[in-house]
Fold this protein.
Amino acid sequence: MSQGGTSIPDEEWERFLREAEAGSAGAPQEPSARARMVTRRLREQPGPPEGWRTYRPARRRRGKGWYVLGLAAAVALLVVALVPGLLVGWFGGGDGAD
């Protein structure tokens, strides 16, 4: 009995029991353990594999130091190839007419 002294009618109580047993339309339904496992496994999978002929941009170069060093070496070799007398003069391999 409630505080006012009246009780819930039997029809109302039966309707409540039927609705509680059937579940209400507004209540969210929790996924099963198997569905949760499958969902977690699908989230952990990596994305689709890379295509066979897809474009991949070139890597960025880290620094210009090697580029500058290679350019300086190429210029030095070019100068020695064009004017070999400069290099011979450094090592005293001249004609000996000092």
